[in-house]
Specification:
Jelly Rolls, Oxoglu/Fe-dep_dioxygenase_dom, alpha+beta, 7-stranded antiparallel beta sheet, dioxygenase, binds 2-oxoglutaric acid, SM-20-related protein, binds fe (ii) ion, iron, 4-stranded antiparallel beta sheet
């Protein structure tokens, strides 16, 4: 992407140019997204952060604040157990706890980088906690299958603990453009980012324990 300099560049813009620091992790995400429309990032969240986020999720879950997930979006929902069986709680941005702020600071930093370097035009986001109890799954789908074409990137952050085994199931399977499958285990600290409009995916049945995550979407106007 060529950068044009002219004498209209004011000192603030110039300062921003100089201030810009290349972030290797974000560059890797951008490279993956442009090559294959998804990126798997391990240790996006530290194990301390994952422990704290998991504890927060479980507190809210024990308080019975989660509800049966639905098909569609926030506005247009219908419950369909044969398609998905997880329980979710939307995170209200206006009432964030300190920890949720820390979570969103990390997400916002990535968004700012994407907007700045790739002109992605991300203006909104929505995130929810998710619990998949044993036996639940989410059948193959596209995240924009209903009326939300503004969803550009899907982000899933896994909050399982260190004891999570592959044999617990609950893999995320992404159907790549050549129809081969990418099988992704929901390991703690791992974040998966993919293009919501293009990649179908599914969550395989959880065979043991419960599968914990935060899922969200970065949206254009
Ligand atoms: O939890 C995952 O790995 C994916 C969840 C998902 O596909 C969704 O909530 O739309
Ligand atoms: Fe999805």
């Amino acid at each position: 992407m060529p950068r044009f300099f002219n004498d209209k560049v004011d000192s603030l813009e110039l300062f921003e140019q100089l201030d810009f620091k290349v972030n290797e992790q974000y560059e890797q995400i951008i490279e993956n997204l442009s090559a294959q429309k998804f990126s798997i990032v391990d240790e996006f969240f530290s194990s301390e952060e994952v422990d704290l986020l998991r504890a927060t999720l479980l507190d809210k879950y024990e308080e019975d604040r989660f509800k049966k997930s639905a098909i569609g979006n926030k506005v247009n929902e219908s419950i369909e157990k044969s398609i998905r069986g997880d329980f979710i709680l939307w995170i209200n941005e206006a009432e964030q706890s300190e920890l949720e702020k820390l979570f969103f600071n990390k997400i916002n930093d990535l968004v700012a980088y994407l907007n700045r370097t790739c002109f992605m035009g991300i203006l909104h986001k929505e995130f929810h906690y998710a619990v998949y109890p044993e036996g639940t799954f989410y059948k193959r789908h596209l995240d924009t299958f209903q009326n939300d074409g503004r969803r550009k990137l899907s982000i899933v952050c896994y909050l399982n603990d260190e004891c999570w085994q592959k044999s617990n199931g609950g893999e995320l399977v992404i159907y790549k453009e050549n129809e081969t499958e990418e099988v992704i285990y929901p390991l703690p600290g791992r974040v998966v980012i993919f293009e919501s409009q293009f990649l179908e995916h599914e969550v395989k049945p959880v065979k043991k324990d419960r599968r914990l995550s935060i899922t969200g979407w970065l949206k254009t106007r």
